[in-house]
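A reminder from the course coordinator: this example appears on the midterm review sheet, so study it carefully.

Given structure:
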């Protein structure tokens, strides 16, 4: 794993993205010598929103209005 200061990270961010993708190597970014962020390669088939849907299910009608039309008119 590679470690670099935030200033160098800022200056080389775009080329570093390509490097992380091609070498499949993580990069830790430090600020004042303390680790503050980590850049990791994503799996090409991984869905970034998958974590939000694991174990979830939709219950009921998600297309209809939440309230009845009469209630909506009263809320105006």
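Designed residues:
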């Amino acid at each position: 794993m590679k470690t670099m200061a935030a200033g160098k990270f800022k200056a080389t961010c775009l080329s570093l993205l390509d490097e992380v993708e091609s070498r499949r190597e993580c990069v830790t970014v430090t600020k004042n010598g303390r680790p503050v962020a980590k850049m990791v390669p994503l799996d090409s088939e991984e869905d970034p929103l998958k974590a939000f849907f694991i174990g979830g299910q939709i219950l009921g009608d998600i297309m209809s209005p939440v309230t009845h039309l009469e209630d909506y008119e009263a809320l105006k």
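The beta strands are 2-5, 27-31, 34-39. The chain has a mean pLDDT of 84.
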